[in-house]
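Reading group handout, session on sequence-to-structure problems. Before we discuss, look at one worked example. The prompt was deliberately terse, the way you'd type it at a terminal:

> structure CENP-V/GFA domain-containing protein

The input record follows.
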Amino acid sequence: MSEEKTYHANCLCSEVKFTLQGEPFHFVICHCRNCKQVAGSAFMANAMFKPAQVKVIEGRDLIKEYADSNTLTGNTISRSFCSKCGSTLFIAPAGGGIIITHPSLIEETVAWVPKKEFHNDQRWPWVKEITFQPKKKAKL
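And the output record:
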């Protein structure tokens, strides 16, 4: 039996470091305005892990939280970030049980493919819908 892969991740300034044990149980793209604002981009890529899979190994004292209560669902979510460089680190929805982080923080190359898009009604018109069908290999 093979061991689960450990991914190493850090913020922009590398003062906050954490590991992810194993694969995310879900990987999605979110188009909600809040996620776009936090990401500073057209969408946010969100990898969902169980709390036991996430371990902060350095810089815990630099992690600050923002309680985002202005959400489409009305539920408050916790958005954690590095207080030194501002990198978004984690999102924790109300109720616990899920820690969301972002592939851009991970040192290793990941092969994850998003399985869903959330809040498509807020997708920018120039961002194409993701096709979730598996790509077929060419037969030569």
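Points for discussion. First: Residues 31 and 119 are 5 Å apart (CA to CA). Second: The domain at 6-122 is CATH 3.90.1590.10 (glutathione-dependent formaldehyde- activating enzyme (gfa)).
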